[in-house]
Amino acid sequence: MLDAHKRELSSTNSTRAEEAATKMLLEKSFVVITGKAGTGKTYTAKNILVKLRKVRKGIPIILTHSDEWRQVDPIARNIILLDDVFGSNNLEIMKLSDWEIHFDSLYECCKNGKMYLIISCRDTILANIEQKLQKYKLFNSQSFRDNIINLSSQEYALTAAEKTDILMHFCRKYDVQVIEEDVTSRSGGLNLEERFSRVLTSKSISRISQTNPFIGFPQTCFLFFNDERFFRKGVEYFVRANLHLKDTISEMKRGNPQEGLVLFYTFLEKYSELDCSHINSEQFEKLKQDLDVEMEVTDIQEYASSLCPAYLTKINGDADRFTFQHATIFEAVMQAFGRDYQSTFLKLAGEKLIWDFATSSNYSQKSEEIVLKIRREHAQELADHLLKHSYWYHHKTMEDEEFAVVVLEKLLSTDDLSPREILKRCSCNEAYHIVRELIKRFHTHSGELNGIPKLEPRHLSHDDLQHALKWAIWKGSAKCIDALATEGQLDLHKDILYEDNVYMTPLTYAGRHDTSGKSVEFLLDKYNVSCDSRDANANTIAHRAAQFGWNKIMKRIISEHSSELSKKNKRQLLPIEVACFYGQSEVLDLLLTNNACPLEPHILMKWTLFGLRFCPLYPSQDVYLDEVGEIKLSEELSSTTEGMFKETFEILEAKYPRCFQSNIMNTVDAFGNTALHYCVLNNLFSLFSFIIQRSSSAVRDKDCLQKVIRICTYLGRVEMLRILSKHSKIDETVNGILGFCSEIDLIRKENLLKCLKTYDANEQTVFDNPQLENEIRNMLKKHK
Q: Is pTM, for the whole model, over 0.90?
């Protein structure tokens, strides 16, 4: 695919955006190429891949699904393009979630200079998720905004000269003649553009280069040169390209119904991929009947081929498989056919397609968001589809109050869920319109005697609202908190929540499960709830902010409630110690920068080491010391990553360089393990390399080194052994493995054999003594 792109690239000049993105990539190893639909994001990214392959001997790789990243060697020299990985048309939450688990490893690969990373996505999608992305190191640096190349921005939008270059490229590619001026024909008085379909004048080229088509100039050019109907319109087509595209596809319903049928069928297929050898005959017959088109299944391939390359493209050159040429074609087909055949769409479309694009008629469409608004007469059908998903609460249509009532009626019409259960589920999932409607319909104070509810099963008591409030605060559903407080008349300033014989304030509960801190900020800002609250383990909001990395809240505590930073919890831990344990480097940096309750450096090192022992932590576990001083974890509660601990160590190194170098390898826990041991045990390769580089002079304890080598050998950590062999004597590495041979078990034998084949940068085996290698192999034979 890149080779074909390379041939096409040879006839075009680099744009400003392409040159800026290439420079940024070479300097920072990471760039985001964004812009509106059709601006050439993927094309620009592929240009960069082709050019960098010449400059840097790396492997260009294009990834579109998160599972593909697992097949990439993270330490190889790769040039990676993540193309439309957050959604092609709109944001796809599931795609984003699939990639989130890889952001930290991508960051580490970029940071160590092993990999160049390009991400392409629409500007509307990036704006929608930018705040959420900031919690990841890859996106939250101060210079992240400088890593974005927006092809629609004034700075990087195509200039008239660049547009002319693109036009001339298409003219050469499609054999279109360009003449210097209009020439009047000898007969009929017609100019050449009117007489011949494949001629453009220099005046037309100049006028076209001044236009700014809604769907992006490169995509507009592609359609212009591949559909005669557009070409004949000339400059006018570029002025109203998006409307001409929609009108042309709509006209197919009358003028070319078979082609229109093929486009609509392709749109309804899974992943919008048409496979002519596997046609769903039943669905195709229903579609023919609804669209009133006469056509045989055997004719599909012929009509699909006639729609290439303007509207469809062959998948990998396969004559039977087609997909849309561009996302803008998909969107135009959806609007043209989905708008007029909504019942057909809801009946035949896949659940994912409906979930991604169908909305209620009253939905407030965001700028440039691609949706298909379903008319009121089909609202019941839409509700049925959405309720098939267990996460229906999060669908965009739940922002429409009228449609939310339709969904609620559906839920109440079954016996599966009571109003109490619906209230609980909606409260913790931001379905605030349903929460308000439930309170209006079912909440009443009548029938209660001495606090004991005497209500009908479908009624909601005050206790039910309190319980729902707990869930709303736990999950950070700010709007539901507001709905329960206002409609349900709950007082958030009282200790209304009760657990384990301890009354707990809303802020304390927010810290238990709302790892984003959203509900905490909401309660502090709107209801001015006090920070002076503790849970059963005496954790304050400062402890929770340190645990979950709530930087904004910690800044507020430092400036307004600094006394909270000196309070210890039941386990005698200060917030700064909690920050070290969970690897919350930014919170630690805030506390150290503001001299907020500083401790001795070796104590901070100790707690960072304790946290490293459990890295990566399961979603947030409380930490405490037992009676003998051994570290323990309680119930699951934030996630910590290798990169966070690495940055924590970097902050400690910058703040206390001398203490850091002397303590990084000397700080041990109750088991006599150092940070290096836990890096090996938990396979934290990047952090392992960091510690070795920073403390190579301190790695002199032979017992410590032998133990690390044995663990590496036992677990088959080949790359870690390779690093150790460069920072210690070769005999020490070999002797460490020999010492392990006396303890080897059959299960780990393959790992040892793999370690024997470890190579350094010069492709030489680290075992320069063949006799020792043979001795190890002879010892292994005893275990056969």
A: no
3-state secondary structure of 114: coil
Residue 261 is assigned to a structural domain of this protein: no
Predicted pLDDT of residue 535? 66
Half-sphere exposure of 308 (CA within 13 A, CB side): 17
Residue 757 placed within a domain: yes
Query: 48: closest CA among 118, 139, 95?
Result: 118
195 and 61 in a common domain = no
Give the phi and the psi of residue 35 in degrees, each rounded to 5: 150, 170
| Last residue within a domain, chosen from 116, 150, 184 | 150
State the DSSP code for 158: P
Same domain, 207 and 171: yes
Domain of 592, CATH number, reads 1.25.40
Q: Do 8 and 130 fall within a single domain?
A: yes
Specify whether 50 is located in the same domain as 141. yes
- Domain of residue 768: give its range: 699-781
30: three-class secondary structure by DSSP: strand
Q: Give every residue of the chain whose pLDDT is below 70, as ranges.
A: 1-12, 56-57, 141-143, 181-197, 445-457, 492-518, 527-533, 535-536, 597-598, 614-643, 665, 669-671, 695-703, 714, 716, 725-784
Take residue 558 and report the two structure tokens written for it.
């430092």
Please report whether residue 36 resides in a domain.
Answer: yes
The number of folded domains in the chain is: 4
Residue 51 has a pLDDT of 84
The token pair at 487 is: 């409609």
Question: Which residues are CB-contacts of 420 (< 8 A; sequence separation ≥ 6)?
Answer: 460, 464
Written as six digits, the tokens of 239 are 């002025």
How far, CA to CA in Å, does 452 sit from each of 441, 443, 446, 449, 467?
Answer: 21, 15, 11, 5, 15
What is the tens place of the pLDDT at every residue in 679-710? Answer: 887 777 778 888 877 765 544 566 677 777 77
Kindly state the DSSP code that residue 146 receives in the 8-state scheme. Answer: G
- Helix (H) or strand (E) run with residue 423 in it: helix 419-427
Please tell me the predicted confidence (pLDDT) of residue 451: 47
Cα–Cα distance for residue pair 14/134, rounded to 1 Å: 31
Q: Which of 759, 768, 713 has its CA nearest to residue 736?
A: 713
CATH of the domain at 133: 3.40.50.300
Distance CA 499, CA 471 (A): 13
Same-domain pairing of 9 and 145: yes
Does a structural domain hold residue 526?
Answer: no
> Where does a domain end: 206, 225, 244?
244
Whether residue 641 contacts residue 583, with contact meaning beta carbons closer than 8 Å, is answered with yes
Q: Are residues 555 and 673 in the same domain?
A: yes
What's the length of the chain? 784
What is the rounded (10 degree) CA torsion for 5, 7, 12, 15? 40
3-state secondary structure 658-719: HHHHHHCCCCCCCCCCCHHHHHHHCCCHHHHHHHHHHCHHHCCCHHHHHHHHHHHHHHCCHH
Looking from the CA of 741 toward its CB, the CA atoms found within 13 Å total 21
* Contact (Cβ atoms closer than 8 angstroms) between residue 707 and residue 677: yes
Radius of gyration from C-alpha coordinates of the chain: 32
CA distance 17 to 41: 10
Residue 641 sits in the same domain as residue 558: yes
Are 643 and 704 found together in one domain?
no
